[in-house]
Amino acid sequence: MKVPLSWLKEYVDIDLSPKEVASLLTFSGTEVEGIQTLGGDFTGVVVGEVLSVSRHPNADRLTVCQVSTGTGDITVVCGAPNVAVGIKVPLATLGVTLPNGLKIKKAKVRGVESFGMLCAEDELGLSDDHKGLMILPPETVTGTPFAEIAGPPETVLELEVTSNRPDCLSMIGMARELAALLGRPLRIPDPVVKEEKRSVESLAAVSIEDAEGCPRYTARVISSVTLAPSPRWMQRRLTAAGVRPINNVVDVTNYVMLECGQPLHAFDYELLEGRKIVVRRAREGEQMSTLDGSARAVDSGMLLIADAARPVAVAGVMGGAGSEIRDVTRTVLLESAFFKPSGIRKTSKRLGLSTESSYRFERGVDLEGVEWASRRAAQLMVELAGGSAAAGVIDCFPCKPARKRIGMRFQRARDLLGVDLADERMVAIFEALGLTVCTKEALRCEVEIPAFRVDLDQEADLIEELSRIHGLDKVPSPAPDSIIIPGADDSAARALLVCREHLVGLGLSEIMNYSFLSEKLLNLVGFGNPGNRILLPNPISADHTVLRDSFIPQMLETLGRNRARQAREAALFELGRVFFKRADGKNGEEDRVCVGLLGPVGRSGIQKTQPVKDEDMYAWIKGLLEEFCRALHVESVRRGGMSRMNLATAPCDHGCFEPGRAVSVSVAGESCGVMGLVSERLRNEWRLVEPVAVMELSLAPLLKQVGRVPVSSSVGAYPGVERDVAMVVEAGVSHEGVLNVVSGVAPQELVGIRLFDVYRGENLGKGRKSLAYSMTYRSLDRTLTDEEANAFHDRVKAALRKELSAEIREGA
Amino acid sequence: MNTQDIVILKDQAVADIRAAGTPADLEAVRIKYLGRKGLLPVIMEGLKDAVPAERPEIGRRANEFKQEVGQALDAAKAALTAASSAATRGHFDTTIPGAWRGLGQLHPVTQVIEEAIRIFSMLGFTVADGPDIETEYYNFDALNTPGDHPSRDTQDTFWLDSGELLRTQTSPVQIRVMESRKPPVRIIAPGRCYRRDTTDATHSANFHQIEGLYVDRKVSMADLKGDITFFAHQMMGPNVKVRFRPHFFPFTEPSVEYDFSCHVCGGVGCRVCKQSGWIEISGAGMVNPKVFSKVGYDPEACTGYAFGMGVERIAMIKFGIEDIRLLYENDIRFLSQFA
After folding, report:
1. Whether residues B162 and B190 fall in one domain
2. CA atoms within 13 A on the CB side of B264
3. What's the pLDDT tens digit per position in A151-170?
4. Are B129 and A507 inside 8 Å of each other by CB?
5. Quick one: average pLDDT of A493-502?
6. Bridge-based pairing state of the strands A546-547 and A516-517
7. Is CATH 3.40.50.80 the classification given to domain A45-152?
8. Which of A514, A572, A578, A703 best probes binding to B when mutated, by most B CB atoms within 10 angstroms?
9. Cβ contact B178:B185 at 8 Å
């Protein structure tokens, strides 16, 4: 809301600078977003009259004008589209500096000398309007100093009024705040209307059919008005407040709305059928055309103002085209009413129509101030439009609600704010805000709330008033106490941070994508079950239509984008939530981690230049998985003397991976996710030439052991004995298969087994391969002899021969 | 031969070692003193001629001689070898790049969340969590948001076909926590939030908040101010100032907004703070008694404060990031700056 400072000063004495006022308001809850100065020193700017206009000889868009300054004629080159013979325009003469900083000098414009400038409003600092010259009313006397028309410079505060404070959407409302803050009296005018003998009841009637939607409706009739421009002071104020002046009658309604916050409407009385106002719900299928020229379908949820025959306004939102004030209007019916906020909000939303009026009604206007506004507007119409007001006011107010009363305990206020505030100071603050303290006892007071404070309805609300006006800066800011809440445990929430730290330690960088993406991308990658996806019914763009049920699509997109920006390698992870419809049809979400690897991420230094093979990529992502699981203390199984993580991988099929390069991962027997090498089809989508590996895991199965405290066991004091075994087996025999056979027969003394060579060669025969292992035998209570170690090793070799038909290469 | 002679002999030997310039010279010195026909055996030989009372002392000295000269010879030999190998092979290039698998880094948003958790943990706050897909009850009703409040509009909120919604704030976690525990409560809840904002340099439809809630018998606005100020100093540095302005939120009463003084210009005004010297951080306030009633807390028996801060906003001012979209673009050149 725009508030001209000079207007505020009508109601409260202010001797602070605009900046000080702004700070006072900002720190009491109404943020001042800007301070604007309108106008300025207009010495040397006079009303000029354009005597002649001719085309500039050298420029199509310019004209050469003869302008009378009142004391002589000068030549002015002008570029405005609305220049015309006979108009009166502010003319800046030589030597003037305009408020926007422009200095007027004698200048040759495209070869024609110009001796001044005809001005637009923005050049004069009066508004942002640069559509054309500021054309003054024809009766303006040529040569009049422009300062007499523009008035002194005006300071305008731009306020952000919070939605709970409709009373602050007015000059008096803001003045009341300042009065309370400054401890000064508030001056509210007491309008007196010069009334004629005829009573208003003899001229008009009001009936309210929906008292819930309209608890109060007042009407006055002002006859014999003469439509004309408003006086300059009123035009200046309206303009400064951002409202365009129209004519004296309409301007008065706007002026009073800005003054007290009560929207008013003026009907042309002659156009009201039956001289009657009916406040009623719209009928199904009813139509009406509003002031803005559009025909609107109204429905039974909307409140209308009608005359005896037809609707004449959408109550509280906008007037109708058939009853509006015209140049020939002689008699005005003035509406000042209270409409139920929720009803107006619904109507405004349904019509897609928000006005200054609906904005205020939907927040709540002052039920008690309805008649004051009517009286004030009638007074001004009589004064400014030469009208004659009928005696009295029709005030339909069937059910006057009692004012709310709220009790407040003084100590409660001090405790809640943590500030030492005397009882008397609290009472004084309430009274300064226009609240009535009806009783003040030793421990508490009771406060009566006037209708304009729609936001106050409990003790805490009153305490907020104290903190606002006393000042939050006076609330102390003590050093904090550390307070431990017994039993508080956040290890589960922190486990996700632990995961992130481990992944960073493993060399991965964290990325973050939106939780929503396009279905096209999800389908392209072919992950998840399309039937279980959660769609966004009202997405902001076609790229964000569905909640992700996998991170992989965005991971690939991220790798692709970075590859396109010449990244040679990337090791990324994203940790967060995916969303899906659960088996029971309800929406579910789950924490997951996704890893993406591109380029020679498993190599370091100058080895990075070697080409990356599929086997390398797989080894790296698997290594990552193993290290990540180890860091999370994934449960181990002991077989013999060896302990192995309960982590299993098995080949699987998945559309986004290369055939034979997709692996399912399970942890402690629980299926946990997939990893693999991304298919060529998808790599081509993002021009990823090199092998790309991705992995996506559900975190719940992985996090079961986080926080487990390791229990130490002896590593033994005696040296171990190493024995190697090299064997030729069928190509289908897996490392896992070897481990299973070995651990099946291994004695306690077998404490380590390490694969150190894999070889496939023609000399081994088709479909065969050679595997070489190093085994460590160690006893906890003695040094093993060679004979003992050999005996263990022979048992292992025998089992390998038997179970895997391994051909042991003795002496290798 | 007496003990005096041995001392003199040792000095001679040390001088000879120092003078030796090549391994061959050193070997000659060794033979001269320690060799089978060298001077040390001569000493030992003389032992039997010595006065019996002096024998032990001479023996001790002789051993000392053998050890010290031996060590000096070894040291000199090592020095000569090192010098000669450096001369023949040259030093390796010490500036060659290192080759160790590098560390990754956390996303700046996560870094701010982790830092906030660290700071509030010092005060005894624990981390709480809630779902991204929320019910209207937790996101709006229980937080005392009027039924026709504009924030519920489909223009602002992502509603789902199920009637649920993507949470627009982390405040629903407050409700979930209070429903599940009796006071006192001291939690922070970081998480993703969603609003139907058109994306621009300062708005993102997907963003993060950190919710804070403290409920106890006598929590005051002063506690809120003190704790937020502590947070500001920890997060942005000890010189940052904090100011509080009254504001309006349905779930707190009184409500405030708070600003940090601009860390770039120190409060004088610059481009980052739009010349105001201050940067708006978030909203906070004393929990509205109506919210306590909804979760079954006795509004007479407890008071509390709550705050919600925008993580991206803090990350942007802390790290000098000018466009929020950079945080979701995942350009590794950008992200690697936050290692």
Report:
1. yes
2. 19
3. 888 999 999 999 999 999 99
4. no
5. 90
6. antiparallel
7. no
8. A514
9. yes
Q: Which of A463, A483, A537 sits opposite B124 (nearest CB)?
A: A483
DSSP state of A516: E
Nearest by CB to residue A510, choosing from B106, B216, B247, is B106
Cα–Cα dist A702/A668, whole Å:
9
The verdict on a CB contact (< 8 Å) between B148 and A346 is yes
Helix (H, G, I), strand (E, B) or coil at A485: coil
CB-based contact A416 B221, cutoff 8 Å: yes
Geometric angle at alpha carbon A329, from A325 and A335, rounded to 5°:
50
Q: Do residue B238 and residue B136 come from a single domain? A: yes
Per-residue pLDDT at B92 = 76
Q: Are the Cβ atoms of B328 and A514 closer than 8 angstroms?
A: yes
How far is it, in rounded angstroms, from Cα A266 to Cα A305? 12
Kindly state the DSSP code that residue B48 receives in the 8-state scheme: T
B283/B252 same-domain check: yes
Least confident of A1-5, A7-11, A654-658, B55-59: B55-59
Closest to A111 measured CA to CA, from A67, A75, A80: A75
Contact between A482 and B123 using a beta-carbon 8 Å cutoff = yes
Interface test with B, best of A416, A506, A607 (most B CBs within 10 A): A416
* Among the partner residues B164, B222, B330, nearest to A418 by beta-carbon distance: B222
State the smallest CA–CA distance between residue A515 and chain B in angstroms.
7
Min Cα distance B69 → chain A (Å) is 38
Instruction: Name the architecture of domain A404-472.
Output: 2-Layer Sandwich (3.30)
Which of A455, A510, A570 shows the shortest C-beta gap to B107?
A510
pLDDT class for A213, splitting at 50, 70, 90?
A: very high
- The predicted model gives A515-533 an average pLDDT of 87
B95 touches chain A (CB under 8 A): no
| ipTM of the prediction | 0.87
Contact A605 B98 (CB under 8 A): yes
Contact A416 B303 (CB under 8 A): yes
Q: What residues are paired with B39 via a beta bridge?
A: none
Band (pLDDT 50/70/90 cuts) for residue A812 is: very low
Three-state SS annotation for A270-339: HHCHHHEEEEEECCCCCEEEECCCCEEECCCCCEEEECCCCEEEECCCEEEHHHCCCCCCCCEEEEEEEC
Within 8 A of A504 by CB-CB distance, chain B residues are 103-106
Q: Are A417 and B303 in contact (CB < 8 Å)?
A: no
Cross-chain residue pair A500–B198, CB shorter than 8 Å: no
Record: contact A507-B101, CB cut-off 8 A: yes
Share of chain A above pLDDT 90, in %: 70
Domain boundaries, chain A: 2-39+155-182, 45-152, 195-396, 404-472, 492-705, 721-808
For residue A84, the 8-state DSSP code is: -
Inter-chain residue contact B148 with A477, CB threshold 8 Å: no
* A620 close to A602: Cβ distance less than 8 angstroms: yes
pLDDT tens digits, residue range A659-694?
A: 889 999 999 889 999 999 999 999 999 999 889 999
Class level of CATH domain A492-705: alpha beta
- What CATH class has A2-39+155-182? alpha beta
CB atoms within 10 A of CB A391: 16
Count of domains in chain B? 2
Which chain B residues have a beta carbon less than 8 Å from that of A537? 159-161
Residues of chain B scoring pLDDT < 70:
1-2, 86-87, 90
Q: For B170-200, how does the pLDDT look when each residue is reduced to its tens digit (9 = 90+)?
A: 999 999 999 999 999 999 999 999 999 888 8
B124 close contact with A: CB closer than 8 A: yes
Which residues are CB-neighbours of A230 under 8 A, at least 6 positions away?
Answer: A238, A245, A247, A248, A251, A252, A384
